[in-house]
Amino acid sequence: MSSAETAAGPARAAAGTAGPLESPLKPRLMRIVEAWDETPDVRSLRLQPVDDGPPVRWLPGQFGEFSVFGAGEAVFTMANSPSRGEFVECGFRALGKVTWALRDLAVGQVIGYRGPYGNSFPVDSWRGKDLVFIGGGIGTVALRAPLQWVLDHRGDFGEIVVLNGARSVADLCYQKEMPAWAEVPGVHVVRTVDPGGETPGWDGEVGLLPAVFERLGLAPGGRIVVTCGPPVMLHYLFQSLEKLKFPPEDVVTTLENKMKCGLGLCGRCNVGRLFVCVDGPVFTWARMQTLPRDY
Amino acid sequence: MTEPTLQARTETAAPTWKPQIAAIVCNWCTYAGADMAGTTRREYPASVRLLRVPCSGRVNPLFILKAFEQGADGVLVSGCHPGDCHYVQGNYFARRRFAAFRSLLNFLGLDPRRVHFSWISASEGIKWARVVGDVTRAVTEAGPLTDWGRASSPAQVTLPEPPAPRPQPAAAELEAVTGHVRELAASLLREGKVSFVLGWAPGPSPGQTIPAFIQRPEDAATLVFDTHSHADLAAFLAGPRKVSGKVAVLVKACDARAATTLLAEGQLVREDVVLVGVSCPGMWRDDRLAYRCHSCDGEVGALCDFTVSAAGVQPGALPTGAKRATGPDPRDLQNAHLESLPAAQRWAFWQEQFADCVRCYACRAVCPMCYCGSCISEQHRPQWVPTSIDGRGNTAWNLVRAYHLSGRCVGCDECERVCPANIRLDLINRRLALELEQRFDYHAGTDPEGAPPLATFRPDDPQEFIY
Amino acid sequence: MGTPSAGQIHRLGRDQLASWVDALLGERKRVFAPVLRRGLRVLRAVERAQDVDFAPGRTRWSPKEFLFPRTETLFSYENRDGVPVLADPPADDVPRILFGVQPCDAAGLVRLDSILLQDPFYARRRELTTVVAIACSEAAPECFCTAVGGSPAGQEGVDVLLAPLETGWVVRALSPKGEALLAPRRGGWETAAAGDWEAALEQAGRVAGSIGRRELPAAWAEKLEQSFADPIWDELARRCVGCSICAYVCPSCSCFDVADEGSDACGSRCRTWDSCSFRLFTQHGSGHNPRATQPARSRQRVLHKFAFYPLQHGGRAMCVGCGRCIRSCPVGMDIHAEVVEVMSGRPEKEAGDVQR
Ligand SMILES: Cc1cc2nc3c(=O)[nH]c(=O)nc-3n(C[C@H](O)[C@H](O)[C@H](O)COP(=O)(O)OP(=O)(O)OC[C@H]3O[C@@H](n4cnc5c(N)ncnc54)[C@H](O)[C@@H]3O)c2cc1C
Ligand code: SF4
Ligand code: SF4
Ligand code: SF4
Ligand code: SF4
Ligand code: FES
Fold first, then answer.
1. Are the C-beta atoms of residues C293 and C232 closer than 8 Å to each other?
2. Among 2.40.30.10, 3.40.630.30, 3.40.50.720, 3.40.1190.20, what is the CATH number of A4-117?
3. Which of A214, B63, B176, B423 is the most buried (most CB within 10 A)?
4. Do B380 and A1 touch (CB under 8 A)?
5. B416 in contact with C at a CB cutoff of 8 Å?
């Protein structure tokens, strides 16, 4: 390329020969094998590697960097449980450069994926316990993998409540799947929309998520609360949890600081001594309380 | 490095080379005219790619930048004749913007054969064919554009350095001003007239002053005014840096012009701010009088609520008697030298400067006129300014910045002062300011009620550059 | 290594230093050294020793850009029949020498190492780089290397240390890399006189003594961390205008952005310097921003360097006291003074006067 490159010949010998390097930020190519809309602005993709290398591995709660060449990368949680086959699923809301570009792609097209990154939900430590999943809006996407995991290992866990909320009926994710969740014995699914977001014939709850949660009257009693949602929702939900005396150690959520590298290099997701991409994104509420309010 | 298209094209600049020309045309006149040329089988070179827009008023001059960045060798912009605009006024506004942007490109040394403008009506198929022929010839002569975002050879330019017209003012004079500034600041705070006084205080480096936000009367004693009170504090009056609450702000003549422009642009409520003009002996940069100060008479303008001079504090603006003699502006001198050089050398000169830009956006951050909550450089759908810190991205940023300040920049030269890469942003701003003064008789920062020149038009605006 | 005189200290005349640089260039090594250009003192790849400015003083930019470039291509992509084909950037294996950097800058590279060595591109360049530092013969008003464990003759990250004598230089290798660089020259160089090295150190000691800024003890990190919610940050950083000069001149700031340049047909994914001072650095796609105000962003820079990083990296600050950010900040933000000021407001105030 440049004249510096041409000079590299003789000098290379001096340094010992070494070939081109591969960046850890270089993605693996994945083909979109299925795509469907969850809501008017949330889309799900099912992906499979283009190459026939080893299958993609991850744990519930881990995330990946998904990229459209020419638009860039975006971080999404793997939306399905690794117990569900050899493909990766993600669900994303179209709100910016990458997500809109991704939305424009069709089945058969190829995108980039790298991962898995971050820690995961401590599903093993939940064995034998009752669980409550509380997802708000697009936040429910992050709960689908652990929920699927739990459903796939149904016998290992106690009673399961799924509280799935959104601004309006149209914005509620996974409407098609929820009936199947509810059919599993011991699983109770509650759907809710914000006041004003209901449509005629809506048979779910109406109310803000924290309020609806309070109405369910669930007592702590060793119950694990797994939640994800917009910052305001979490703020009020934590107030409710505090009121109901849920121990912070038993409340698990994910932080969604802006990320670029996923490897603890780019500095973007820094919160105090931690990097959310490496030390998170899964945090207990107790651990969050030890962090500076930088999320 | 990140420009595969350009590189590929450089290599293929063979004898068979044909220019790529982007023609940005309005739907109602020129597109129809081109269509007519097509249906009447009038021959015109096929080197032109048509980009249809609803109106020439929709043509953001940055489209031209984008076209070059993406590999065009030439650009033609064309719309309806004045008076014929489908949207009545679109082309009048466009004409002013084109004039500003074209003068910027010329000044930076882009070969003038690469950028063309025309008015072509729906019935002027013949004119279309002729214009396209002329433009293609001109761009072919100019050859492939291979140095967008880089200097093809060293510029080797030395700018003339004018002698200092006067020595630094006596320390006693500045100390007297400082004393009065402190008194006034303390009394404004004590009387609760303002919640902050924005002034200058000593900084961490010797001889440096920095912006100070004084909240308590007793802290007014930290304020200073000297020949290094550079910061244009009007930058803290609007946009993301805006200080909330009622503030008194110390302004030199140049800063007062910035406040005036903020008023003209509706960014400042006059009642929210107490403007304290400071009689300014000129600012010093290292050992020389700042360039802008050569041609400045030091007058703070009619807008101020108070004026502070060595003699004391007085309400209102400084009487004209205090006017200082002015001399030629060194920036004009240096620009004249640049403009006497061949365009290619000027292009190399600016590309060498832009190559050093690190995209710290300090130029934007200190500019009183850069008050947008979200700068175009922070938007990426579409991505006007490439993120990469390289020739292409830096050229885009510097063009965008300069163009967005044309007719608005008050020449405080803060951007140039803070630029860590020593890029002569002052020269670019100054050249554009003069262009707009000459064309539209607009002097930024003189009229709190005047419409900015690119937000208005006159039907008889000069259009000598349009076919 | 292995030459009989390994470890030896040499004394060089002025011309010898220049001919050394020319000899290195002759061996096809890339030499980055201070030059004067457009009124700036900057490090650039030089073609001849004559262009090098050996005078004391910092360069506008730190040497980090030669290991961690402003922008670099991670890979390129090209769409071939609907399938992207990715290609790694070509290898660049030319050995390079950072010649005449300040000791603080060498220490800055060690800070970068602690983060970026994980990245193979950085690691390869680091391996190919030998650092020849010049001990400082004067300190600027913004310098505070001594406050953060450094010194005008600091050895951290230095492969070869040059120190000015009244007539010429004393040269000493401080690492195997440095030994390897000096080995081919030793034959032609004079051995330093007894006391030359000590004289150079003494001079550096005098320079250290001229630095008026107080120590910033590692023990402050935890208390600084607790200052996160202290309203003092709003006051301290009110004037910060949110450019990124501080991060871009800093030898130890390492944050970057990743973005695609090009179209969907072809282009490259690039890594570009970024800064915590920018609003977009942390703003979510939804618009939520954990650091919504400029003071919050400014605080991140200080606390990352003096609290979060040291608490994770054995107490060392992520600042080497080069003073560049202070010198180049448009509004004179003074990171040293900020730390001191925040600490002076902490309840368990350290003993000793808190001066600037
Ligand atoms: C751990 C984690 C898990 C997540 N999981 C999900 C999920 O499952 N589903 C989901 O929908 N969302 C998820 N998110 C959020 C998601 O990552 C963002 O919504 C997404 O990245 C937005 O991408 P975008 O490109 O569309 O947005 P944009 O707002 O367009 O931002 C794109 C990127 O471009 C950058 N940018 C902005 N301006 C410029 C410029 N001028 N130049 C260059 N770059 C610029 C931004 O910094 C940003 O990084 C998750 C986030 C995290 C951290
Ligand atoms: S201040 Fe200078 S270096 Fe920084 S972005 Fe502006 S022109 Fe570029
Ligand atoms: S562009 Fe520069 S000179 Fe013009 S007003 Fe802004 S800071 Fe001042
Ligand atoms: S501290 Fe100074 S250099 Fe850093 S972002 Fe703020 S104004 Fe810019
Ligand atoms: S924070 Fe400032 S003083 Fe410290 S190393 Fe970086 S630039 Fe130098
Ligand atoms: S995403 Fe880069 S450090 Fe966490």
1. no
2. 2.40.30.10
3. B423
4. no
5. no
C245 with B420: Cβ contact below 8 A? yes
State the pairing for strand pair B306-309/B312-315. antiparallel
Instruction: Please give the number of the atom of ligand 2 that sits closest to the Cα of B421.
Output: 3
> Does B383 contact A1 at a Cβ distance shorter than 8 Å?
no
CA distance B96 to C287: 35
- ipTM, two decimals, is 0.94
From chain C, the residues in CB contact with A27 under 8 A are: 86
CB atoms within 10 A of CB C87: 13
Ligand 3 centroid – CA A271 distance (Å)? 36
Residue B466 DSSP one-character state:
B
Please give the Cα distance from C256 to A258 (Å, whole number). 12
* Domain A123-255 fold: Rossmann fold (3.40.50)
Spatial distance between the Cα atoms of B104 and B90, rounded to a whole number of angstroms: 21
Strand C160-165 to strand A28-37: parallel, antiparallel, or no bridges (unpaired)?
unpaired
Q: Which two tokens stand for residue B373?
A: 């909550």
Burial class (CB in 10 A: 0-12, 13-18, 19+), A276: buried
pTM to 2 decimal places: 0.93
Give the span between the Cα atoms of B116 and B467, in whole angstroms: 8
Beta strands B312-315; C266-273: pairing state: unpaired
Q: Which element (helix H / strand E) includes C94?
A: none
CB C102 within 8 A of CB C142: no
CA–CA dist A134, A42 (Å, integer): 18
Q: Encoding tokens for residue A94?
A: 């179209």
- Search chain A and give the residue with CA nearest B380: A97
Q: What is the pLDDT of residues B58-80, one digit of tens each?
A: 999 999 999 999 999 999 999 99
Sort out which chain B residues have CB atoms less than 8 A from A96's CB and list them.
381
Contact A32, A106 (CB under 8 A): yes
| Tens of pLDDT, residues B363-405 | 999 999 999 999 999 998 889 999 999 999 999 999 999 999 9
Q: What residue spans in chain A does CATH classification 3.40.50.80 cover?
A: 123-255
Cα–Cα distance measured from residue A87 to residue A183, given in angstroms and rounded to the nearest whole number: 24
